[in-house]
């Protein structure tokens, strides 16, 4: 059996189980983080798991993607240079990924909208999202990519 806990809680959960049951250790239960559980699911099916990026690695990769497409941006061209832009964009992309919205999906939504500020923001977001995904390619993944990989396994 598995006890799935947040990444930072595995050791504390193991200690809690041992103290509540008044035992030295256990082997019939596996305390595991959701990320590690998804990795195990993928690996057990024979899927190759890309290298999972840390929080700082994701931000560095996204920052690089933003720099690469800065010249193509419209509404975000100047604001993308401001402090905190990459962090806000990373949160937005994580939310989009968790809802399984792709850059193509954003563009499809954008096509059905009238011209205006929202359309411009969606266009820039889709451009940054696509650049980020292209940089991740098959070699790297973030948490949402790992979750999607595990969910697709039959």
Can you give a write-up of this model?
The protein is built from 7 helices and 4 strands. The chain has helices at 10-21, 34-44, 55-69, 85-98, 103-111, 117-136, 143-152; strands spanning 2-5, 30-33, 51-52, 140-141. The chain has a two-stranded parallel sheet. Strands 3-4 form a two-stranded parallel ribbon. Helices cover 59% and strands 8% of the residues. The chain is mainly alpha-helical. Strand 1, helix 1 (10-21) and strand 2 (30-33) form a beta-alpha-beta unit.
Question: Major sheet: size, sense and barrel closure?
Answer: 2 strands, parallel
Summarize the amount of helix as a percent range: 55-70%
How many β-strands, per DSSP?
A: 4
> What is the beta-strand fraction?
5-15%
User: Which regions contain 5 or more consecutive residues with pLDDT less than 50?
Assistant: none
Order the strands across the largest sheet as they lie in space: 1-2
Alpha carbon gyration radius: 20 Å
Classify the secondary structure makeup into a structural class. Answer: mainly alpha
Per DSSP, the total helix count is 7
What are the secondary-structure elements, in order, as H or E?
A: EHEHEHHHHEH
Q: Report the end-to-end length measured between terminal Cα atoms.
A: 20 Å
Mean model confidence by pLDDT:
89
Shape verdict:
elongated
Give a quick precis of the structure.
By secondary structure, this protein is mainly alpha-helical.
């Amino acid at each position: 059996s598995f006890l799935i806990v947040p990444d930072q809680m595995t050791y504390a959960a193991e200690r809690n189980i041992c103290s509540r049951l008044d035992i030295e250790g256990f082997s019939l239960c596996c305390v595991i983080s959701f990320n590690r559980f998804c990795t195990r699911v993928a690996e057990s099916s024979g899927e190759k798991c890309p290298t999972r990026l840390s929080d700082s690695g994701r931000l560095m990769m996204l920052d690089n993607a933003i720099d690469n497409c800065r010249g193509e941006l419209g509404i975000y061209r100047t604001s993308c240079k401001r402090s905190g832009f990459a962090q806000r964009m990373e949160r937005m992309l994580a939310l989009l990924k968790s809802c399984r919205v792709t850059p193509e999906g954003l563009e499809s939504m954008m096509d059905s909208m009238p011209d205006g500020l929202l359309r411009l923001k969606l266009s820039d977001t889709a451009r940054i999202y696509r650049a980020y995904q292209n940089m991740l390619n098959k070699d790297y993944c973030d948490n949402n990519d790992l979750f999607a990989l595990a969910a697709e396994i039959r």
